[in-house]
Design goal:
It is a multi-pass membrane protein. Belongs to the YtcA family. Helices cover 66% and strands 9% of the residues. It is mostly helical and 89 residues long. The chain has a two-stranded antiparallel ribbon. A hairpin with a 2-residue loop joins strand 1 and strand 2. The longest helix is centred in the middle third of the chain and has 22 residues, at 36-57. The chain is flat and about 55 Å long. The N and C termini lie far apart (42 Å). 7% of the residues are buried.
Length: 89
């Protein structure tokens, strides 16, 4: 008889999903409201492209590993760092 812990986990996940959905900060850009995570993703993409360009220019990119793994990881790192710097409370 182990369904009780599973039910408790499911109920907790549903409760958190319902109560934390309104915690997304909104930004007003030119009168249009944008979720902050979209801004972080876009600025993270631009930052990671700039960093990748610098790594290629300095001839360090071949030493990092496969670009198909490095570029998205760099994008995620930049996006999460921007989120933590500007929106974490």
């Amino acid at each position: 008889m182990k369904p009780l812990p599973t039910l408790r986990k499911t109920a907790t996940a549903c409760f958190l999903a319902l109560t934390l959905t309104a915690c997304d900060p909104m930004l007003s850009l030119q009168g249009s409201f944008w979720p902050a995570w979209i801004i972080c993703i876009m600025t993270g993409l631009a930052t990671s492209m700039l960093l990748m360009w610098q790594l290629i220019r300095l001839r360090l990119a071949p030493h990092l590993g496969p670009p198909l793994l490095i570029a998205p990881s760099l994008w995620a790192l930049c996006s999460f760092t921007i989120w933590l710097l500007f929106y974490a409370r």
